[in-house]
Amino acid sequence: MKMASIKEESEDLMIEEDFTVKLEDVDQQTGSLEKRERTPISESQKELLKACFQEGMKSVGSPLILTAAEATGLPTFVIENWIGNYKRTLKPASAMRPIKPKLHTRDLSPYNLFCRDFLRNKGTLKDIKKRWGSLGEEKRQKYKEEAAMLKAEAKGQQLSPELRELKIKKHLKQLKLEVSSLEQLGVESVILAYDRHQAKIEVQEMSSKGAAGFLDSTDTVNSFALHFNVISPVDSVRKEPVDVLVKRVQDLFNQKYREAGGLGKLPYQSLLNGNITIDALGLPSGIILKKPSFYGRKQLEEVLKAAEMISFHISPDVRIYSPPADPTFENEDQCPEEPGESCSSEAAVTTADDASYFCSADDEKNALEEWRQWHPCKTCQHWSHLDCGFEKAKSPVVSPRREHVLVKRVQELFNQKYREAGGLGKLPYQSLLNGNITIDALGLPSGIILKKPSFYGRKQLEEVLKAAEMISFHIKDQCPEEPGESCSSEAAVTTADDASDFRIVHVEKETLKEWRACGGCQQWSLLDCEFETSLCVHCQQ
DNA sequence: GATCGGAGGCCGACGCATTA
DNA sequence: TAATGCGTCGGCCTCCGATC
Q: Which CATH number fits domain A404-482: 3.40.1160.10, 2.160.10.10, 3.90.1460.10, 3.30.420.40?
């Protein structure tokens, strides 16, 4: 038809030169996380990589990767990605790749259609202007007709489910940004959305921090769902908060520990120090024993699902190694200063693996590694932590855990801001949690509140790092000592909810703790736990 | 006048499924 | 179980019509 004829005619729009958009022209200064990290690879680096590829660096496990890394200065994981992508470029393009529907919020213009045809015929962007300018009136008219036809068609047609979904997604995203913008202006807002076309009952929440507190304290969301004749328990409308799941797993682990003969609670610190060894049987595949707060939602749910299968076996005599004062350990990620705390890395667990171990001084790799087990080096016989001194000889290529690096960077950032605010040492999360200290964190990205970095998701970590320069802490005096001060325990009660949730912030409890002097006995006390009136409970009695 | 958003391709990053 | 392959995402390129 008409469209086809236009397409045929556009064949003669072929161009002579093959310009390509070069990513090397892109700003290469971004070492930060301002946007998604993308490693610029220069032409010379590519040449080196291609040369290594020709010499056999054709798979991720190739020993030539290290050579290439040295030659190019690129991290090994970047080279691994490059290999995969480069191999793909060598293959002929996949024949029938389904075309994803695109959401055109505006009607396509004659110019847009010309661009489509021109670029489809290997034309380049640089030439478009020239070609469009020199396009004959007749051809231009045909594009106008096609645009008008498409516009008319779109008007008469019903939206396909795919396009509808795209459209909804786009609007929700816009709403989310609007809520965030309003929040920055000090406006608390809530948006609840329910899609009538969805078989599954799902209420999308978009709310500011304060408004989220309101939702938590009321049954609004559930009422909203019920309004649409939906018999839906709260659980199906809203996921169980992560911190509740953490608590349940904690209880489970403590119970299993006691069943195995342990006393009290599972001693994560002793595990970490290697003073005790616990074989955890029945854990879901891929999940190892660690402090429950280090699991994500999915893992927590899996652990709870497998609760009955899980059992612990305590081997107090199998002490792997009690580390001496080791300089490598001094730089560790803040092994607990407060009782009950544990490192941000995973707790120690035994493994049945009996591979050989060799020292590695690769700090970058060590920073990414999760292991925490002590072994003697087969070469120098020194004992050391896998994560600070060793790599496993059998697996030279370690899958990088970028989140760990991000967590660490945020930890350092927070500690730095804490010191800039006059604090000493490291940010005392436990004191925050207990409400013994209050910190106003200014400049944090919208929707993110101060909490232990390991509770942030990857996206939040990146946003925090992005806003690093804007962030400042203001340490308020400790509550009990300075009458008249008020404090909020908000920092202590956040949850690490799924990034997929539209909910911007999830504040489980927001307790106003205001210190007041009793009108009778003049004793200072917490408003929420002692006072109803200007008299404390004792004086009221 | 400022801003948005469309075109198609490139390519690094990443997650998941498959394979050895 | 580690390695590999593949699909997908997202940011970027340039230019300019449409819209506010």
A: 3.90.1460.10
Per-residue pLDDT at A426: 73
Give me the pLDDT at residue A174, please: 62
Residue A345: is its pLDDT beyond 50?
A: no
* Nucleic acid strand C: bases within 7 A of protein CB: 1-19
Q: Is the pTM of this model over 0.70?
A: no
A439 pLDDT above the threshold of 60:
yes
The reply to whether the CB atom of residue A538 sits less than 7 A from any atom in nucleic acid chain C is no
Distance of A39 CA from C11 C1′ (whole Å): 12
Rounded Cα distance between A149 and A7, Å, is: 15
Contact A183, A447 (CB under 8 A): yes
Give distance CA A402 / C1' B2 (Å).
Answer: 40
Question: CA A507 to CA A304: how far, in whole Å?
Answer: 23
Query: How confident is the model over A450-494, as pLDDT tens digits?
Result: 777 766 766 677 777 777 777 888 776 443 333 333 332 222 222
Q: List the one residue out of A492, A353, A482 whose CA is nearest residue A433.
A: A492
In this complex, the residue with its CA at the shortest distance from the C1' of nucleotide C13 is A21
The spacing between the Cα labelled CA in A70 and the C1' in B16, in angstroms, equals: 30
Residue (of A180, A167, A253) closest to A212 by Cα position: A180
Q: Please give the single-letter amino acid code of residue A24.
A: E
Q: How far, in Å, are A150, A151, A166, A433 from residue A157 at the CA level?
A: 10, 10, 16, 56
> Which nt sits closest to A109, CA to C1'?
C17
Q: Which pair of structure tokens corresponds to residue A271?
A: 């595990």
Spanning CA of A346 to C1' of B17, the rounded length in angstroms is 27
Q: What is the DSSP string of A135-161?
A: --HHHHHHHHHHHHHHHHHHHHSPPPH
Residue A267 clears pLDDT 70, i.e. is over it:
yes
Residue A119 one-letter amino acid: L
Separation of A25 CA and C12 C1' (Å): 10
Q: Are A172 and A165 a contacting pair, CB within 8 Å?
A: no
